[in-house]
Design a protein that fits this description.
This protein is α/β, with parallel strands linked by helices and 182 residues long. It has one domain: P-loop containing nucleotide triphosphate hydrolases (Rossmann fold, 3-Layer(aba) Sandwich). About 7% of the residues have low confidence. A hairpin with a 2-residue loop joins strand 9 and strand 10.
């Protein structure tokens, strides 16, 4: 399977070369965990070109056709899904949204808020619909906050599932693929 570099130093090593090409990847994390930075690095890491937008469902195909777009990022999907008050409508819209992303053939990255902590995890519909899930954790260890990344799932490719540390640096997020968190 062809890979698309993530733009995150060290993360491609965990993924065996990058995200699976043409698939939708979900990045979840708590506020301040780096979801927006992650999405920006992903968009601009390769060619410096990308599309970021809030509501793409109606115009997604039109935006992608003829523009040679290969990467899409939506940060966060929550802003789109909050439009739907009823659970059934929200679920239907989420499925339609992920189907629309898949139909573009682009490698897509969607961010979402992490609803619970590491030990008390509740899964969201987006996690089941996406091809891969990357979780950005903010953990407490001996009175200090530790940032950690985990490739929770990535269909069709071998990947490291261990929780690995990351930090914000002058060039954005950097993952330390050989280090352990604790």
């Amino acid at each position: 399977m062809d890979r698309v570099p993530t733009g995150i130093k060290g993360l491609d090593e965990l993924l065996g070369g990058g995200f699976p090409e043409g698939k939708c990847i979900l990045v979840v994390g708590s506020p301040g965990s780096g979801k927006t930075t992650f999405a920006i690095q992903y968009l601009y890491s390769d060619s410096g070109e990308g599309i970021g937008f809030t509501d793409v469902l109606k115009t997604l195909t039109k935006l992608v056709e003829g523009e040679n777009v290969e990467r899409i990022a939506l940060d966060p999907i929550t802003s789109v899904m909050l439009r739907y008050g009823e659970e059934l409508k929200r679920r239907r819209a989420t499925v339609e949204f992920f189907d629309a992303l898949a139909d573009t053939g682009c490698t897509s990255l969607v961010t979402s808020e992490l609803k619970t902590s590491l030990l008390d995890r509740r899964f969201q519909l987006e996690e089941f619909l996406s091809h891969g899930v990357v979780v950005l954790h903010t953990l407490m260890h001996q009175g200090n906050f530790v940032r950690a990344v985990q490739v929770e799932k990535m269909r069709g490719i071998s990947h490291d599932t261990q929780i690995r540390p990351y930090q914000f640096g002058t060039s954005g997020i950097e993952v330390f693929p050989r280090d352990k968190v604790f």
